[in-house]
Amino acid sequence: MYNPRDIIDLIADNVRKTRNPFGIPNFLCNRWWKNSAIPEKGEALLFTGLMYQFVPYIDQSTRYLEKFEDTPWADFVRYGKYVPNYLAGMGLDLLTPGKEKKRFNTILQNIAKILTKSNVDFYYQSELDSYSGILLYDLGDQEGFVRHAEFVAAKLKRAGVKSLITVDPHTTYALKVLYPKYTGQRFDVKTYFERVNLTSKNGGGRVTLHDPCFYGRYLELSDVPQKILRDLDIECVNVRNSGLFTHCCGGPAESISPKLSKEVLHRRVEELQSTGVPIVAMCPICLGNLEKSGAQVEDLSSLIARCAA
Amino acid sequence: MITFVNPNFAKELERFGEDTASECFNCGTCAAICPLIYEHFPRRMIRYIQLGAKDRILENAQELWRCLHCGLCTQTCPREADPGEVILSLKRFVVDTWRRS
Fold first, then answer.
1. Where in chain A is the domain with CATH 3.40.50?
2. Which CATH number is correct for A199-308, 3.10.20, 3.30.1370, 3.40.50, 3.30.1120?
3. Most B CBs within 10 Å: which of A5, A81, A271, as the mutation test of the B interface?
4. Which of A36, A154, A156, A197 has the highest CB neighbour count under 10 A?
5. What's the whole-model pTM score?
6. What pLDDT is stored for residue B1 in this prediction?
7. In chain B, what residues touch A136 (CB-CB under 8 Å)?
C-alpha cells in the first residue's frame, strides 16, 4: 500500500495547477471529438468529465505503481510533487500507448452516435468539458474538491449551460448530487443511456451487466440499461450481487493499492464469469479494471451502437 | 496499550460530514459485507469514534484509504448509521490533521 498522503498531495497539486489529476494538459488527452460532426450548440451539453479519456493513463500509471508497491521505491512517490506538473503529465502522455487512447475515444464517439440516432438535441464544446474533481472527493480532500468544483460549475454557468448529458457514474454523481450540495449550482443532469431511445431486432445475444456502485446504489439507475438492452433484443443474465447490492470491481483502490484492487477484482470477475456470457460494463474505471483480469468485457455504449446499427 | 479518550471527538468530527456514528450498535453487518473482508473494517473505526479514541484513528489512518467507497455497508446497515459516509468523514478529518501538522 502506498502512503495515502503522498498520493493525495500529488493528485491535489495536479488538479489545482492543471485541472487534471495527472497533470496532462486537457487538450492533449481530450481529442475524441476531433473530426466529428457534433454541433457546438444545442439543448444539452455532452459532458464527458474526461473519465474515459483518463483510462489509458490510469492503466499506464497503475502498471508502475504495481511494480513498486511495498518496496523501498514506493516512498519516492512523495517527491513526485517536486516535478513540474505539466512535465510529469507530458511524460505520462508519451508513455501511454496511442492505440489505447484511440480505443477509449471510440467509446465516446459511439455515445455521440447513439445520441444522434436517438434524436437527442445535444452539443459539445471541448473547452466546457472538464474533470469533475471526484477523485479528490473520494480521497477525502474536501477543500480541494470544493475549490475545483466551484471552478467547473462557474465556467458552466457563465456559458449558460442548464442541461448536461454525462457518460460515467462518477461524473454523474458529482454533477447531480455533490455540485448542488457543495457549490450551490444546479444542472439538469442525465446519463446518456437515460436519453437513448432505440429499438432493434439485431441484438439476439445474452450478456451480464456489471452495475457500477454509483449507478447501481448511489443513483439507483440499474433498471435503465436493462430496459435499453431489452428493446435491442438482448437478454441480461443477472448475477446475485447486482442493482442496489452490486459489488465493487476494486477500481477505486488502484491509486493507493493495486494489490488490494486486484484482490477485489478477482472476486468480482469470478462472479460475473459464472454466467458464461460476455460481460458489459458502463463505467470507464470498471471497464479498465475488469479488462485487467483478461475477461471479455464490452462497454455498454459499444454494444448499443453495434446492435442499433 | 494505553489510549487517551477524547469525549469531544464525535463533536469535533461533525464539521467533516456525517454525524451518525452514535447510531451504530456494532452488529458487524458492515464488516461482514465489506469487500475488503479485513479486520473488522469499517466497524472498528466507528467504534473508535464512539469511544473518542482519536489517537487510535490517527495511528491507523492508512486503513481508511483501503475503503472503496462502494456504499455496500451503508446500503445494508440496519441502524442507518451510514458507515460509508462516516469513513469518508474520517478521511477528511485525517487529511485536515495532516495539512495542519
1. 199-308
2. 3.40.50
3. A5
4. A156
5. 0.95
6. 66
7. none
